[in-house]
Amino acid sequence: MNFAIIGCGFKARSHAAAINRIPEAKLAAVCDLDESAMEQYKEYGAKAYTNYNALLAEDGVDAICICTPASYHAVLVEQAAAAKKHIVLDQPMALSLDETERIVEVCRENDVKLTIVHPHRFRPVVMELRKIIEAGMLGKISHASARINLNRNRDFCAESLWRGAKLHECGGLMGQAIDYSDLLLWFLGQPKQVFSMAATGISNLEGEGVAAGLIQFESGALGTIEMSTAVYYRNFEESITIFGEKGTVKIGGPNALSFEHFDVRNLSETETERILEKVKSDPWGVPGHEQTISDLIQSVKENREPLVTGEDGKRALELVLAFYKSARNNSPIGMRRGVLV
Ligand SMILES: NC(=O)c1ccc[n+]([C@@H]2O[C@H](COP(=O)([O-])OP(=O)(O)OC[C@H]3O[C@@H](n4cnc5c(N)ncnc54)[C@H](O)[C@@H]3O)[C@@H](O)[C@H]2O)c1
Fold first, then answer.
1. Rg of the chain in Å (alpha carbons)
2. 292 DSSP 8-state letter
3. CATH-assigned architecture of domain 2-112
4. How many CA atoms lie within 13 A of 138 on its CB side?
5. What backbone torsions phi and psi does residue 49 show, to the nearest 5 degrees?
6. How much is the pLDDT for 239?
């Protein structure tokens, strides 16, 4: 399958490297408003376009990886879907629920596949925990906590004007906590209501630099998210802990790639050892971008939904938007039937 990338900044490199590693995929073209951003892709033999419509008119392109800031995602997806290109869309999927609905709808109407990049889902440690939860090994889950305390200073944001800017809703909840919001939803299901507070804190960026969110899930479980982007003086932690009646598991360590705590009552010692060893021996596994793109190719071949769907992307965004609404209104926000009320 021939791929093109639009938006040749930081994230595009992960997409290009992933495409390069997949035998069935080729990077045929790239597109950016800034010609110099595309220079690095010459070595892949990719054609460079500053005009998106010209790129979409290429018969030799089957799928588009969209790596621009999220404020442009909806309009770029609409054009790509109309041109019958399959779509790999980096997260956040968009900045409003109306836009996410348009994205899902236009892909359905044009019969093209859409997958959202939530690479944390493909980490070995996350996949093992998901299997344990799905098998009911933790019993009833009482609560879960996600902690994302990072340092995203002016240097990080100076690289691109949109980073940290309010216009692009790019505070830490949208920029840094969305992957963990997605994981909490993946592990615990549909939220019923959320409450949150957000502040600038000690961050010198426009978007929120610190936030705390509380989630009540339909299952009755509670979840918390603690997020900050101005930790002194470097990244401090990314972690997620699940507390169940038959087990407690914490994912943490640098980049949240390992089990920091693992007590699961009904797993034998041998099975526990096997899981811990598996994760320890290959903490990154096959990179999430590569798995996402491979899965899109398979979903086209098998005419099935990709593993991470537009609906999944929408649910993660919906949770972040509920945090924002709650913080603005200083009140709980209901999320019944997937609607913010
Ligand atoms: N940087 C991260 O750590 C990170 C992590 C996860 C997801 N993402 C997501 O990936 C996407 C890209 O982030 P990034 O950090 O690579 O951004 P970036 O600013 O480094 O790169 C964006 C590129 O898009 C180009 N661009 C912008 N509008 C365009 C348009 N209309 N047409 C063509 N090109 C256009 C810019 O010229 C720039 O080269 C965002 O949606 C972001 O939320 C970023």
1. 20
2. H
3. 3-Layer(aba) Sandwich (3.40)
4. 25
5. -130, 135
6. 98
Dihedral, CA of residue 161, residue 164, residue 169 and residue 174, to nearest 10: 130
Query: Which of 5, 10, 95, 170 best tests ligand 1's pocket when mutated (most atoms within 8 Å of CB)?
Result: 10
CATH 3.40.50.720 segments of the chain: 2-112
CATH class label, 121-285+317-334: alpha beta
Query: Does the C-beta of 116 come closer than 6 Å to ligand 1?
Result: no
User: What are 111-153's pLDDT values in tens digits?
Assistant: 999 999 999 999 999 999 999 999 999 999 999 999 999 998 7
Measured from the Cα of 92, ligand 1's closest atom is 43
239-285 confidence digits (pLDDT tens): 999 999 999 999 999 999 999 999 999 999 999 999 999 999 999 99
> Closest Cα to atom 44, ligand 1: which residue?
11
pTM: 0.95
Q: How far apart are CA 186 and CA 258, in angstroms?
A: 18
